[in-house]
């Protein structure tokens, strides 16, 4: 199903849903002229969602505006999330909850001797209640999702028994329509910024974990009928070929949101091979990308997501995939606090 709505018409659809205000939009769209020149590449723009202006930045603020808008409408008073100790989502969720007068329980995979750095430090400063749980392995595998939801459900039940009203952010909800609403918003905002420059992106590179960010950018781009190829750079090591599942989730979300598009597996473009050797860990090529972008543009990518998307883009430029007159946008999804948590690995490379 294709559509050609104006960006404003897509924003109008999103405007029908409850939403809280957390971040500052639009985030800057910045041309990386030095990098492009150095690589002999296409025009490269970076969409700076690391500058959402909330709790040290990140795309998740867009998602949480919708997610917690819905939670507030339902009078929820506590949020619960299970993730790793360096989760960017946890930091932004705890910050959003604080701002909205809600509490946060974070179930972190690991133990209390985890180094207090990066996001974990910020979670503590935000006053989130932290409980350590056995790591669930790959959060995005069937087994990981099952374990994740089981632990999560127990805590939600406990909170209900205490008379609390928790927001349920389980694995399904986390990649839910609200997350995609947030990143549809991001795609449309970027399209409007490019329109002002009289440009359309030929490619939009997006780091991919669970895929909610990628899915939303894909749906927003398709809803506007743009000729942009949205490229998801797979950042975790343990998942291959889940385009069917992503397409199904994207289509369901679009339907529920009333955005008249769908996604089919064969139109989703995923790039594998840039995640590195270790799950949710910096990669060698990503670390090189961090250095190169810092040294040419003074911009810091994060070690687990945007650096890998940039490493993929750099590699493809070097392989001659692009013409000089093409335009590429890369979404910087935030996550820069983890630079501190991975200091040793980043210097070792
Ligand atoms: C900074 C950052 N970028 C990208 C992602 C991946 O987003 P998604 O899980 O929606 O694919 C995450 C996920 O936690 C993240 O924290």
Short summary:
This protein has helices at residues 7-14, 33-39, 60-73, 88-99, 118-125, 142-161, 171-174, 177-196, 212-223, 243-257, 284-297, 306-318, 338-341, 343-348, and strands spanning 29-31, 43-48, 78-84, 103-109, 129-133, 166-168, 203-208, 229-234, 269-271, 327-332. It has 349 residues and is of the alpha/beta class. Pyridoxal-5'-phosphate binds at residues 58, 88-89, 207-214, 302, 305, 333-335.
Number of domains: 2
| Distinct helical segment count | 14
**Fraction of residues in helix:** 40-55%
Class inferred from helices and paired strands: alpha/beta
First and last CA, distance? 45 Å
Number of strands: 10
The CATH architecture of the largest domain can be given as 3-Layer(aba) Sandwich
Spans of at least 5 consecutive residues whose pLDDT stays below 50 are none
- Give the topology string: H per helix, E per strand: HEHEHEHEHEHEHHEHEHEHHEHH
Major sheet: arrangement of strands: 1-2-10-7-8-9
Using the coordinates shown, work out and report the CATH topology of the largest domain. Answer: Rossmann fold
| Strand residue percentage | 5-15%
